Fold these 4 entries.
Entry 1:
Amino acid sequence: MSGHVAVLGAGSWGTAFAKVLADAGNEVTIWSRREQVAATIRSTGTNPDYLPGLRLPANVTATADAGKAVSGAWLVVLAVPSQTLRGNLAEWTGFLAPDATLVSLMKGIELGTTKRMSQVIVETAGVAADRVVVVSGPNLAPEIAAGQPAATVVACTDTDRATLVQNAVTTSYFRPYTNGDVIGTELGGAVKNVIALAYGIATAMRLGDNTKATLITRGLAETARLGVALGADPLTFAGLAGLGDLVATCTSPLSRNRTFGEHLGRGETLEQAQVATRQTAEGSRAAWPSVTWPGPTGWRCRSPSRSSGSATRASTPGWR
Ligand SMILES: NC(=O)C1=CN([C@@H]2O[C@H](COP(=O)(O)OP(=O)(O)OC[C@H]3O[C@@H](n4cnc5c(N)ncnc54)[C@H](O)[C@@H]3O)[C@@H](O)[C@H]2O)C=CC1
Ligand SMILES: O=C(CO)COP(=O)(O)O
């Protein structure tokens, strides 16, 4: 495919993914919410707030003008926090080329609707589901920015479109595998964030490896059961978008979700953990949906919601 590609979101994953796209031979324009970040990327080829040490290739530029970034792009990559996607995309939809492929990098579920990101994209942009591609796997942005070997899953209900995106993001250090299971690929990425919070809490509490192995194993079993109930292929959870991402996120000190959990495990409040983690920890929004996260009104709780479900029983059928 020729023409330029757009990455909307200049955080750590948007920026690292822009490097992957550029290394794969694409002309890339990053959209940043803040003009100052865009100007720094343009003038220095760096994004020090998110990925200090990364030098972006020359075929990456940046703008704070979404229309300019998206106009004429055949591939539009969405890399904003999950809870802001609907609002952001509503503003960008008018700029999208009629046949553009939309790629979701986000690993979250929309609060209030419990929709996956690809569903939010279909609804908000008014595009067919087969124009939306999900990229998810064990992809810690700083490692990929450093060119360390990694693999990912490129999921789409349209096999040809998945292959197109696979080709557009293949580099010597980044190996994408296609999959038709969009539901499982997205759920694996979203649910592992919550399990990584628990893993971080356990780590800070100095709990042992038996505990942590149990969290990963039972967490995966629960994710797979949820996924199957929602229409996913259980095998997806045994792959990169399931087990792979769960292991990377739980065990890496680079993970914001695990780090957030570690702060809580040391006895800090949600606010302290948020301030210390700085970047997007999607699992925190999912695990505490009743909390209103910082905004103009500061911190407060909506009516507390308590789960009425019983604890998972050892007799539950399925993976043990
Ligand atoms: N960082 C990573 O290693 C990976 C992240 N992801 C996923 O990618 C998504 C984006 O995460 P990151 O880039 O890591 O987050 P980040 O916290 O590094 O960056 C978020 C970006 O979104 C911008 N932003 C914040 N609020 C916004 C708003 N209201 N409207 C528009 N933009 C806004 C920020 O300015 C920043 O540029 C998340 O869903 C995350 O789970 C997926 C794989 C790897
Ligand atoms: O999704 C990720 C790795 O695959 C990144 O995890 P964190 O958002 O916890 O840093």
Note: The CA atoms of residues 200 and 301 lie 23 Å apart.
Entry 2:
Amino acid sequence: MRSGVPSQHAAKPVVDQIINARWIIPVRPRALLHHHALAIQQGRIVAIGPRDEIHAAYTAAEITILDQHVLMPGFVNAHTHAAMTLMRGLADDLPLMTWLNEHIWPVEGRYVSPEFVSMGTELAIAEMLRGGTTTFNDMYFFPEAAAQSAQNMGMRAHIGHVIIDFPTAYAANADACLQAAADLLPRLQQMPLIRQSLAPHAPYTVADAGLRGTRELAEAEHLPVHMHVHETAHEVEEGLAQYGRRPLARLAELGLLNPRFLAVHMTQLDADDLTICRDSGLHIAHCPESNLKLGSGIAPVARIREQGIAVAIGTDGAASNNDLDMLGELRTAALLAKGFSGDPTAFPAWEVLEAATLGGAEAIGWGDLTGSLEPGKAADCIAISLDHPATFPVYDPVSQVAYCAGRDQVTHVWVNGQIRIRQGQAVDWEESALFSRAQAWVKRIRDKDQNT
Ligand SMILES: CSC[C@H]1O[C@@H](n2cnc3c(O)ncnc32)[C@H](O)[C@@H]1O
Ligand SMILES: [Zn+2]
């Protein structure tokens, strides 16, 4: 494949860098390229083509040679609560509402603050970048703190302004959340790696008034909406009892569903729900490991995809997953779709890689910039070394990435052309220093909250 490569007779342009790789999986187009290279200038991909042609066409200030590696777009984690790394392993083996009501919400009530969110988000970014994630779609309190952490650490983030009815350390009610979102929008617009959404928490925590306010602000500011929906059977039963209709139907009636709506979880879907999803054009963030661990249910991904409904992949927070590992998550998604449907062709390797990259970018309205390696797009890319016992032999690199590579094999990560991970190590921060700072929070939470 040859894309964006100038004629070799013209004067040779100088680019910032060229990355040579044994294999490139650009995701779009769906192709496996052998011995190709990527030319990058000012954070953007300017060309992708056979190695010799790229070197004949460009001079580069920096050349990286990845001769045992797959180069591919970074993963887009379509649903996170990044700061919840500080609560990883605090409450396990519980159903969702017990986990939230008796453990997570009380701890959040005591500790969540801008400082807590900065610390937890930094830990999450360190983990996600090491695992090859270059963009995350977040929903948490104090979104400015999360945005600032992502911008400082050079990671791309889609930051959700949370909307929730009950009083928290962040805001008194849904109206105050909407006001905080409106006030913050211009500040976050100044951050080049950040885009924003509105994030009403769930149908059971935001009444109709807050959802109408969400729709109005989303329409006025052209913002996407990111929300937990149909996570458990209990949520659907409770919604039916309280509102006389299933939560998804209620959201449709409130005018919230459209291609800029990202419904997270969606484990409970009847035929009418699937029709609503298909007709509205919404996207689904599938979080299989969090759903399994909380015993919430299994999203019927094969049936969802048969209807042409777009699926992205997310980890959810580190307190319910308990990791932020997109390679692990996409593998679980592929295997679960096959096992649950009884069809091994459900969610094949190529399609699950697409869902974990471009599918995530499109789900958050960022498909113009990231999620695939194409000229004009941001150089958000990762290298995975296949020179490892876990991935030997290599008949098909796509199969290796989907079914057997581990995140310890992610050697290089670039966001917007800036190297963030080199030879498996963070470039700009010491992980041990992050852990030392985080330890103060861990001590406070442990002393007060464990074994009480
Ligand atoms: C209001 S900020 C986000 C809010 O969501 C909570 N949360 C984390 N994981 C889940 C989940 O799987 N379902 C519902 N709510 C979840 C988190 O603790 C924050 O309070
Ligand atoms: Zn969640």
Note: Residues 83 and 120 are 4 Å apart (CA to CA).
Entry 3:
Amino acid sequence: MKTRSTAVNQVIELGNGNYCIREAESTNCYLLIGEKKALIFDVGYGYEDIKPLIAELTDLPLIVVNSHGDPDHALGSCWFAEAYIHELDLGKLFRNDTPEMKQKALDYRLNKLPALKPHIDRDMYLKTSVKGVNYRFVREGEVFDLGGKVLETIHLPGHSYGCIALLDAKNKDLFSGDMVTKHNIWYFLPADEQAPFRQAVSSYRKLQRRKAEIARIYPAHGSFPIGVGIIDQLLDSLEDMKQNHASDLYFESFAGSGYQHYYKDTLIIYSKARLEEFMEDSAHED
Ligand SMILES: Nc1ccn([C@@H]2O[C@H](COP(=O)(O)O)[C@@H](O)[C@H]2O)c(=O)n1
């Protein structure tokens, strides 16, 4: 099928009725089309309404599912009547739904991509809100049957308390949100926004146990698909970070600051407090 992109959203065909709608060269939103229904996994910051792009690819009833409540994944819910999110992340989404947060995030993005400036209606965007959306809570094990394509929800707390991934076991595709990626993973936001590292370790171990069911991983940021070996690398990177963090470089963003730990293909950006807590937790385990 011929796909149309806009200046803000690039549409990439993945095969097997799956598409990536990549917003502003950053957030990979996945449109998964079955025989009876379609599902969009993440909807970006929502700099523009992506419904017209979706309508060119499918006219099936659409289910909107957010991988977690961060603004770059879920603020775009404002364009839809109903959206799924894990209950632990709805508060986070609402806290991020302010003109100030949107302004900061937009400035950060336009600083990286000045060519987008004429294509985003800033005033309109600052007025959007996710508060009028009808939310449904998505839970561990919940299944979305699209007809010929079935997606199982896997709860993976870590980068946020309510992070989920969707597994299409028949086709061996994992749509991993922010928990599994070769791009950076932020772990420096306050403790009420992101789970302790010990929970991230449990989440990566949970995915390790499902490795035989996964051949390709489609992350919410960075290149795709990636191989299943990245799950082991992420676990190893957390161990490595405990030992080898002395030369980690400082990082600053519109949402806070942290330190960058590179390990093989992975990059964890963490706060000192979170690392100290992790090291203490590990000491008690021994
Ligand atoms: N509230 C937020 C906002 C963004 N992130 C992460 O920022 C990264 C953005 O990467 P770009 O290279 O596209 O600038 C990405 O890892 C987001 O997940 C976040 O964690 N929380």
Note: The first strand starts at residue 9 and ends at 15.
Entry 4:
Amino acid sequence: MKKTDIIILTGFLGSGKTTLLKQLLANDLEQGKKIAVVMNEIGKISIDSNEIQEDVRLKELLNGCVCCSMKDQLEIQLLSLIQQNELDIIYIETTGVANTIDVIDACTSSLTVEKMLLSGVITTLDASRWFSKDTLSPAYRLLLHQQVMYSDIVLLNRLNQLNTAQGELVLKELKSINPKIITEYSIDALVSNISHQSKQSSSIPISASSSLKIKTIVYEMTKPISKQKFEHFLRNAPSSLLRLKGYIQFTKDPTLYNVQYANGFVTYEKELMKLPMRLVLIGENIDETELVSELDQLS
Ligand SMILES: Nc1nc2c(ncn2[C@@H]2O[C@H](COP(=O)(O)OP(=O)(O)OP(=O)(O)O)[C@@H](O)[C@H]2O)c(=O)[nH]1
């Protein structure tokens, strides 16, 4: 069964996410694709939702961020969207202050990965915002940096608001963080580029999933594994492995555990529901063959 593509739109406040989304939706609808949008807003009301066409399924997550307080709601909304509709693409428009890794984490649970595939992260970036980033607080500066770093495509706009030297400096800095910076794009050119490539693949071809900046690996377990070996695996995991989560069963213990690993720490919680033993691993340039082979040896 073809999985529904998930495309995450990130970008700082006012950087052009909704403007881009509207263009992408118009293009997809013209091609007859079945689309849904999950729109996340920090505030209690969404202004941008009114801008979404009627034939697009829309879910709003308001008053919080899907990268933190609303993580669980995102999973629930995604699952309900695909249960009720046959969809080609789900766009997730994040709040301007969302942490990219945490959004990826939130939309790749061990339940969603069965039916959905993360197809990429697109970031919109205002060149003048980047140029004046030193006026932001350290936390927002870091956020902006990470939005660029973890994106599969960065769409840079408003470059014409800077002079030539400033523009060159911005580009040099950005390209040292992420070479996939697209500048001077007009939405028309971008959309026609997407349309052209979409004829070959069924979704927005940001890149093949194997070459995404942040990769998600799904590991299905057929039998319980050794807890001792699993913890040894985690202790020796590469630092590029950012997250591991899912449901796991250990040898000589009938309990199913919800396992969560991040920043070198692992936690287990008893899971009462009968869920598939499946792990999701998220990381930057992680080697799937190597990790899967190591996991295979844990039983
Ligand atoms: N010059 C220029 N302006 C743009 C571009 N994209 C969006 N804008 C304008 O920037 C403003 C904010 O655009 P939005 O698309 O609402 O930005 P957003 O990232 O969704 O904003 P928030 O949801 O508030 O974070 C609007 O006035 C847009 O018309 C662009 O590529 N170039």
Note: Residues 11, 13-19, 48, 96, 157-158 surround guanosine-5'-triphosphate (CB under 6 Å).
